[in-house]
């Protein structure tokens, strides 16, 4: 009986341009500047061309994403990867603009999908969302068969609309996200530290982010709280930033 062949590791080609767009509402969100400073350092180290816009309205969230998409599609050089960082007050599936109006996250995510952004087709798109997703608070809990996945054979000439995308939320559905008035959000600060100082595929790095956040005990109004990010991935290959 022959030994099974090891899976060949395939990684995204990161030799081209790396682009980042950060949209951050700072109004009534003390500590936001610390997050912006940390992200700027991270993008500089990881060789991203970074654009940041403060205090977008709900409409401007969408307009800035559309401008980003149009600029990507207009480029003549090869674009390897795009990061989009969205920071604001929010509820599940929605963000609040500087004007107090809401924008649907799904509308923002669709702008760069494989249908709408040719320049990023089959290339990784990473969304970092620092926002509350509800009002619930997690006090934590004491610590007290493998699924079979059927993979359909597909034509190499086509690609699903929603592949090559990674969504990273600062908290799980229904729960609030925490931010320090001076030091910024624990999520962004932890993510930046891991991305700048650790090497490996991005999903492994995000596992480390989750581990660190899960071990930390935060205090709100004198009560201990727990928080962890939530990650959704349709990446088809390994994504290395370093």
UniProtKB/TrEMBL annotation:
It is found in: Cytoplasm; Nucleus. Residues 29-136 form the Caspase family p20 domain. SMART domains: CASc. GO terms for molecular function: cysteine-type endopeptidase activity. Signal peptide: none annotated. GO terms for biological process: cell differentiation; positive regulation of neuron apoptotic process; proteolysis. GO terms for cellular component: cornified envelope; cytoplasm; cytosol; mitochondrion; nucleoplasm. Residues 155-242 form the Caspase family p10 domain. Transmembrane segments: none annotated. It comes from the Eukaryota. Its main location: cytoplasm. Keywords: Cytoplasm, Differentiation, Hydrolase, Nucleus, Protease, Thiol protease, Zymogen. Belongs to the peptidase C14A family. Heterodimer of a large and a small subunit, both processed from the precursor; the mature active form is a p17/p10 dimer and the intermediate form a p20/p8 dimer. This is Caspase-14.
């Amino acid at each position: 009986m022959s030994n099974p062949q090891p899976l060949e590791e395939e990684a995204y080609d990161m030799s081209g341009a790396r682009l980042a767009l950060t949209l951050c509402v700072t109004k009534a969100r003390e500590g936001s500047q610390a997050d912006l400073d940390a992200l700027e350092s991270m993008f500089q180290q990881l060789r991203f061309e970074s654009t940041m816009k403060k205090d977008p309205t709900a409409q401007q969230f969408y307009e800035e994403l559309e401008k980003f998409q149009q600029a990507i599609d207009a480029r003549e050089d090869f674009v390897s990867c795009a990061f989009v960082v969205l920071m604001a007050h929010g509820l599940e599936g929605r963000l609040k603009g500087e004007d107090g109006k809401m924008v649907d996250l799904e509308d923002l995510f669709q702008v760069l999908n494989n249908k709408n952004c040719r320049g990023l087709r089959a290339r990784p798109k990473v969304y970092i969302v620092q926002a509350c997703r509800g009002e619930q608070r997690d006090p934590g809990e004491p610590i007290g068969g493998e699924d079979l996945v059927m993979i359909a054979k597909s034509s190499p000439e086509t690609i699903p609309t929603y592949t090559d995308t990674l969504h990273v939320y600062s908290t799980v559905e229904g729960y609030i996200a925490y931010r320090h008035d001076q030091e910024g959000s624990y999520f962004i600060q932890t993510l930046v530290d891991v991305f700048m100082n650790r090497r490996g595929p991005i999903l492994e790095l995000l596992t480390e982010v989750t581990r660190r956040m899960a071990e930390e005990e935060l205090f709100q109004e004198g009560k201990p709280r727990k928080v962890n990010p939530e990650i959704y991935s349709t990446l088809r290959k390994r994504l290395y930033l370093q």
